[in-house]
Write a structure and sequence with these properties.
The chain has 7 helices and 5 strands; from the N terminus they run βαβααβαβααβα. It has 178 residues and is of the alpha/beta class. The chain has a single domain, classed as 3-Layer(aba) Sandwich (Rossmann fold). A 5-stranded parallel β-sheet has the order 2-3-1-4-5, sandwiched between helices.
Length: 178
Amino acid sequence: MIVWVNGTHGVGKTTTSRLVQERLPGSHLLDAEKVGETLMDVSPSLPWTGNFQDWDPWRPLVVETARRVLDFAGGTLVMPMTVLVEPYWREISGGLAAYGIPVRHFVLHADPETLRHRILHDSVLGPSTFRLEYVDRYAEAARAWLHAEAEVVDTTAIGPSEAADRIAAVVLADASAR
């Protein structure tokens, strides 16, 4: 199975996903951003759109990479990755479904003011204009489709550890119910 941790840039997906992985026995972390970074390294001459997700190979490569890693490693994959474009999510989730891979889709949410504050005061990466550009895009996706497609974990007033506890509890309860 895949536990997909979605949400906008700067909301805490990577940190939370590492903690989720620690709480799920037999799980592995797979950051789909690495697929995009590989495309950026291989294809520096591709027209830059501002986001590697816009390149057609990225989405099927994410599906294939996840499938192959699951076949190789087994267990559960925890995948932190922002996907705010509905057709992109449909392509990825549909591709995984075609392989019979179940996906638990979570969205880490924080209100726009909290997001902006976190981005501007990030002690590791520092302020990021790239991340700030996605605050409004995330809000639009959340209203239009994203929150209806996922289990929302509101992180406005909680930290990554509590968010990870909530996600892991849902996944573990689901597994024990089977």
